[in-house]
């Protein structure tokens, strides 16, 4: 590969076909990940309540599972947000917004 060769953007700032492929956003997939993570968190919360008798008894495994599920939801929401902002930036670069 040579230095200084434009592969992903034209001189006017629009994306080439390789650039569109590289920066392709998957908002639908990210939304599906958020929904799946929310379902897993709800299941983990139900398991936590059952295992700890409504918070009366400490259960380390149930607590860790609930924390992991919560972190998974947060990560999925951040990923969705970045996909949406990346999609808006691409539209601005192409002059569509």
What does this structure look like?
The chain has 97 residues and is mostly helical. The protein is 68% helix and 0% strand. The chain is rod-shaped and about 65 Å long. The two termini are 33 Å apart. The model has no long low-confidence stretch (mean pLDDT 83).
Q: Are there runs of 5+ residues with pLDDT below 50, and where?
A: none
Structural class: mainly alpha
Beta strand count:
0
Helicity range: 55-70%
Order of helices and strands: HHH
- Sum up the overall morphology in one term: rod-shaped
Query: Averaged pLDDT, please?
Result: 83
Classify the beta-strand content into a percent band: under 5%
Distance between the termini: 33 Å
Summed up, what is this model?
The protein is mainly α and 97 residues long.
Name a few traits of the molecule:
97 residues, mainly alpha, 3 helices, 0% strand, rod-shaped
Question: What's the helix and strand layout?
Answer:
Layout: H1 17-22, H2 27-51, H3 60-94
Helix pairs in contact: 2-3
